[in-house]
User: Fold this.
Amino acid sequence: MFVSKEMHLYQFSQQAAATVKVESGRTVKVETLDAFSNQLKDEHSTFNEINMARVNPATGPIYIESAEPGDTLKVDIHKIELEEEGVMAVAPGLGVLGQQVETFSYKRMKVDEHGVHFSKNIILPLRKMIGVIGVAPSGEPISCGTPGDHGGNMDNTHMTEGATAYFPVAVKGALFALGDVHATMGDGEVCVTGVEIDATVSVTLTVLKKKSTMPWLENEQEIEVISSALTIEEATERAVKEWANILTERTPLTFNEATMLLSASGDLSICQVVNPLKTVRLAMSKALLKQTGLIEFPG
Amino acid sequence: MFVSKEMHLYQFSQQAAATVKVESGRTVKVETLDAFSNQLKDEHSTFNEINMARVNPATGPIYIESAEPGDTLKVDIHKIELEEEGVMAVAPGLGVLGQQVETFSYKRMKVDEHGVHFSKNIILPLRKMIGVIGVAPSGEPISCGTPGDHGGNMDNTHMTEGATAYFPVAVKGALFALGDVHATMGDGEVCVTGVEIDATVSVTLTVLKKKSTMPWLENEQEIEVISSALTIEEATERAVKEWANILTERTPLTFNEATMLLSASGDLSICQVVNPLKTVRLAMSKALLKQTGLIEFPG
Assistant:
């Protein structure tokens, strides 16, 4: 199954018409546009020419048969294949240093198996990841530029090959979409873009008949909850609360012991600090969780 | 040279009397008390009995001859030797979930080469680190519970064996101190304590005749600036600005290119979110910096 990048949207919405319908368990190749919908591929682009309504496209939505509100969508990320050119941009008012940036500028970079050719002397190692990924919310549509409990623009560097993501299904069919692939991005994405690039991503989409309330990610070593809110402080509180409640409900630990365990061994990290809501992840080692008796995905 | 844990202070202060004087380049063994000054070592302690004025002791201050305001103190961390018992505590009002914590509780844990014996079934891997480390500020004294550009309670999990820390010297002799060692702590220290433990730390203290304005840390892979402020957002802005200015001044990169490089390859991480000021680190790979032409400690 293949979904072309021509089939993209700019908001996660229960009203969006499905591009394809798939059975649970199917593997899908999803082709994606870069975060600017290729508007910066023209050598002479200026910031004023960018149509901001066409930023952060996500390919989809994909309707997964049997997905119902209250289920969880499991997304195994197999492979991220990059095109040959990426682009970065900075602009006044955007990113952590937006107030100091005086002029718009962008930079196109060749990308190959050696990495990202940032300049003649500087080659950045590849750190492929998916910026925007998620499902439709049950309420109002949410712009693909914003993260939330439906997923969206979480910009989590762990969202990469070999990882499994989990999203709470809010509408019939889930309406899954992904886009905004980066050839590399640092944790934080401090100046608003990674190396934005067209890509093709293979994922397996599986419906789990169990409830979750926030996005989770699992890789070989860790399980993490992903939390977004207006501030890093609020996002942090939501993440710690979710883990503390799960550990208290599903292991013999008391609430106070669960908080101690999180403080001693949970790693709180920044995903991004530049989108309308900020995103953190709180990760626990799977080897350690096994000792508590918690071995299944804890969403 | 050995400095006993009996010689400790609860604030970094230019007025503090030096416990010892050493030449630049000397290696010192610093013995430290746990973060509660051992007040929780009594089986029947209650939260009300803790004297909060005796929390976060740091051993010192150590006067380094030849250190003058405007210099940088380089601290090579060689070895952290732990005692055999650690303690964690949670209390109403403290930490990210302070409002949900109903009662004070604490837990003493055996610590050995296998790790931290959290409970009969749960052994946490050792992740030794130094919570409080720094020099005296030039102005008012700063409590050891608070981080800042002098160092202090940064709770950075990278502050461990093999790392080198750098602090801006603000007063004659630098007046270096360290304490608050953890047998393990997760990034964030979300519920206010790591596994607090007495320890002995060997460091080499060297005066560099060059200026810096913030704390830095270097390990085998990375160089990072450490930034503290009232919010994570403010701490982030200070860290990104410091790196962007250094890259712009000391490499051929323009300011806009420097911000792109930081966004593509700089990793913004949380040190802690539970002290009076919050702390982040912004790290760049040394292999990548070498390509920009920046090879020396950039403070």
